[in-house]
Amino acid sequence: MTTPLDSGAPPPVPNPGRRLLLTSILASYASSFIPWSLAGAQTPASAPASASAPDAFLSVSQVITGRTSLDPAQAKRLYDGLVATMPSFAEQLGALAAFVASNKPAGHDLQAALDTAKAPFAKLPADIATAWYIGVVGSGAAARCVTFESSLMNMVVADRLKPPSYAYGPYGSWGRNPLAA
């Protein structure tokens, strides 16, 4: 008994349409594992502020702070605070996200690249870094404290130091009961 492979007939030719379909399914599945910050997710500069603007803020913040894991809830609060204190923040953020996606500078080279390009939004990374590390958005009378305990200045040293509180004794304790006489 002979099988089709033993019949001496040439092997079937692969179907290019089927190969293309299988390749595209495999590529879309594999791309689902790439974090958006590495994939260059961005909000175009001409797009209005929308639900994806905090995502662009988070991905730009990861480049600026050099930290891959930032709290999305805190990012949303900082974004809202920056939008409230800077009227053109959403447009500048879109332009900065597009700049980062097209130039792909390292975090420590970003400011130099912006200064070299004479970008009109070159001051924005400093404002974003201040918001993340200090927890304050805006300046002067418009300054708003968005976070303190979970700001990066406290998180970076959290293994050794605790953020100061109103207690003048050890962290989280009172020297004596203030109501006792």
Automatic annotation (TrEMBL):
Q: Which domain of life is it from?
A: Bacteria
The record's annotation in Pfam families points to: FAD-SLDH (PF12318)
Report the protein name in the record.
Answer: Membrane bound FAD containing D-sorbitol dehydrogenase
What InterPro entries does UniProt report for this protein, alphabetically? FAD-SLDH_ssu (IPR024651)
